[in-house]
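Escalation from tier 1.

The customer reports that the assembly of two entities below gives different structure tokens on two consecutive runs. Tier 1 could not reproduce it. I'm attaching the input and our single run for tier 2 to review.
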Amino acid sequence: MPLRKLISSPEAERDVAPFSGSFTASDTQFRMAPEVQPSKVEIPKVGDYYADYSPLTPEEIAEVDAECAELFKRSKRVSG
Amino acid sequence: MSFYDPTTAPDVFDIVWCKWPKRENPLAPGPWVRCVLVLDVRLMIDADETEWAAITAAYGTDAAKVEKADLSNNLLITSAEYRALGLHKSTVFKLDLKNRFRLAWAEKYFVPQSYVRDRGIVAGSLNATQQATVLTE
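Tier 1 run:
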């Protein structure tokens, strides 16, 4: 059975460059080519701010802004 | 301090965006905010008679960064739920006391969400099932 020709027109056949037998891009160049780079991770935004979903330690959470701590000290609870 | 009007304070079980604690990272592209789940709201009065709201809340963390063992006793917002709450991804709110903080309802600490009209500062509110999870933990 004859092999099926993928390029049927003689003009199209002439447009196909012969295989050169060599690959010039280095492995590094190949990996850095834009079309094979992973897409950049987009950081979600809230208005002009970036949303941070990273874990916090109890120490970071316990860190209270001095101005706010003073405010709590001098204020009283109104409702319960 | 520039307080928000206490009448605009979120309700318990609302999710809002908080600027504190600040993330100090010189390589970061800009200021950062964190999603928090409101657990208590109290009206306070300063020595100069100014009324303000005190917010107790728990921080949210990317669920992918939380150990599986930590998921059971906390509130997991799944991939099917997070959009309705104004979040960007599956999120875990740790409900233990060590993950809670208290701040004034003020511009210095909280920022309005910007993606849902007519919702003001609140990004979303837990549904009844999610609220029940918080109450039982």
